[in-house]
């Protein structure tokens, strides 16, 4: 029997969330919703209810769900060659690396499976660079408060949020934190930390802090950081896991800031939902040698072939212009809604199609409360902390879908307001 016939004749047996929790580690606070299928910017739950998806797998489903380009790529590559390890050359990995280099400031690419792994690779590269090129005995990497870089031990240490580090000590040494967008603080930290036995080797930043509340970087701040790195020989590492691959309205988030990093990372949107990550670097810091770093699954022909189909779609005429236009439409609509709720909403901000609606610190509502109310209106959203609601739809979202989402969030806020007055 062919796989196609097997899928047609073997419908999935019902599986409840209670059964799910019986078998899956409880490391997530899931919303009470079991999703079954998707198409474009929409998903359906097991009961057949439709939702407009403005989560997109947390800024991951670049082309939405079941996009024909991805369906074709998945089918082609799973039938051809899906994994052989990095003991051998594969055309797909080489072609994807070439595309990424030709469409960025990077010269070389290392492939892995996730954003955390990509950031881990960037940290390892910075440390080896520090030891072999800068001759630093105890290198330090500066990162920002409220940052998020992943869940491995090194990347949660790099993450400037204690809540992610609680219970996992001892953490990895060699990291220091500074306030984001505060150039005086970073200059002071560099001056204070540099010592005969230790020295700042790299600065690692997100161009826009996603988990930290959808906070865009200031252009003058990043340009001064770039200048400091050039003056002192430090590497500038940029975490593009959430803001890269067109999410910001440009292919890469750093393009919004008028700088080029020495190393940057990508994942999430790179594969459009198929797991793949990448660490990209300039030739000047391409110092890994065979055996220094590796990944069994990284750069497999299946993931690379699908990612290349996503990349080529992003490069089509008008694609990124639509991201910019829909982002402007969304922010304008959210700001109009904010005017109706000045006691609740204090800011709307973002780049392209990564946007946040911030609630006042003393507001009587929280972001999870708004997310739940929006879900009841058929709109899926995701918090970015207790007081920021994040909007990250697929990059193919339309004018009509933005308008539908704005109506849903307006209805959700009205329902919350009504409930609080009763």
Pick out its properties:
2 domains, 422 residues, Aspartate Aminotransferase, domain 2, globular, alpha/beta, 17 strands, four-stranded mixed sheet, seven-stranded mixed sheet, Aspartate Aminotransferase, domain 1, 14 helices
Number of helical stretches of at least 4 residues: 14
> In what order do the strands lie side by side in the largest sheet?
4-12-11-10-7-5-6
Average pLDDT over all residues: 95
Total count of domains:
2
Based on secondary structure, the structural category is alpha/beta
What is CATH's topology name of the largest domain? Aspartate Aminotransferase, domain 2
What is the CA–CA distance across the termini? 60 Å
Strand proportion: 15-25%
CATH architecture of the largest domain: 3-Layer(aba) Sandwich
Q: What gross morphology would you assign? A: globular
What is the CATH level 1 assignment of the largest domain?
A: Alpha Beta
Question: How is this fold's topology laid out?
Answer:
Blueprint: H1 3-9, H2 17-23, E1 35-39, E2 42-45, E3 50-53, H3 56-59, H4 68-80, H5 91-102, E4 108-112, H6 115-132, E5 139-144, H7 153-158, H8 162-165, E6 175-178, H9 183-193, E7 199-206, E8 208-209, E9 215-216, H10 219-232, E10 235-239, E11 263-266, E12 277-281, H11 301-314, H12 319-340, E13 345-351, E14 354-359, H13 367-376, E15 379-380, E16 382-383, E17 388-391, H14 399-421
Parallel strand pairs: 3-15, 5-6, 5-7, 7-10, 10-11
Antiparallel strand pairs: 1-2, 2-3, 4-12, 8-9, 11-12, 13-14, 14-17, 16-17
Helix pairs in contact: 4-11, 5-11, 12-14, 13-14
């Amino acid at each position: 029997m062919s796989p196609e016939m097997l899928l047609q004749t073997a419908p999935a047996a019902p599986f409840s969330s209670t059964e799910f929790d019986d078998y899956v580690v409880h490391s997530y606070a899931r919303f009470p919703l079991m999703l079954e299928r998707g198409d474009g910017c929409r998903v359906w739950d097991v009961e057949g209810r439709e939702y407009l998806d403005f989560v997109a797998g947390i800024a991951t489903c670049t082309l939405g769900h079941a996009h024909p380009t991805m369906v074709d790529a998945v089918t082609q590559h799973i039938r051809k060659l899906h994994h052989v390890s990095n003991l051998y050359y594969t055309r797909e990995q080489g072609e994807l690396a070439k595309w990424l280099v030709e469409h960025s400031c990077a010269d070389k690419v290392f492939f892995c499976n996730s954003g955390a792994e990509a950031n881990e690779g960037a940290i390892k590269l910075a440390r080896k660079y520090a030891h072999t090129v800068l001759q630093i005995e105890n290198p330090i990497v500066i990162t920002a408060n409220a940052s998020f870089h992943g869940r491995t031990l090194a990347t949660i240490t790099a993450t400037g949020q204690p809540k992610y580090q609680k219970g996992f000590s001892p953490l990895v040494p060699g990291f220091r934190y500074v306030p984001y967008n505060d150039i005086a603080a970073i200059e002071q930290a560099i001056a204070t930390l540099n010592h005969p036995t230790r020295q700042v080797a790299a600065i690692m930043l997100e161009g826009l802090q996603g988990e930290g509340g959808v906070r865009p970087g200031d252009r003058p701040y990043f340009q001064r950081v770039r200048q400091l790195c050039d003056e002192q020989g430090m590497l500038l590492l940029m975490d593009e896991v959430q803001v890269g691959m067109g999410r910001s309205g440009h292919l890469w988030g750093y393009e919004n800031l008028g700088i080029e990093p020495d190393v940057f990372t990508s994942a999430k949107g790179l594969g459009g939902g198929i797991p793949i990550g990448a660490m990209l670097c300039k030739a000047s810091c391409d110092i890994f040698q065979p055996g220094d770093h590796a990944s069994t699954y990284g750069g497999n022909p299946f993931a690379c072939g699908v990612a290349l189909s996503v990349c080529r779609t992003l490069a089509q005429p008008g694609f990124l212009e639509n991201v910019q236009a829909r982002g402007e439409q969304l922010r304008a609509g959210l700001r109009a809604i904010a005017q109706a709720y000045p006691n609740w909403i204090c800011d709307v901000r973002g780049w392209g199609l990564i946007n946040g609606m911030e609630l006042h610190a003393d507001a009587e509502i929280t972001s999870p409360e708004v997310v739940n109310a929006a879900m009841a209106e058929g709109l899926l959203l995701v918090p970015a902390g207790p007081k920021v609601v994040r909007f990250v739809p697929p990059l193919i979202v339309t004018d009509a879908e933005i308008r539908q989402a704005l109506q849903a969030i307006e209805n959700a806020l009205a329902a919350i307001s009504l409930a609080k007055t009763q």
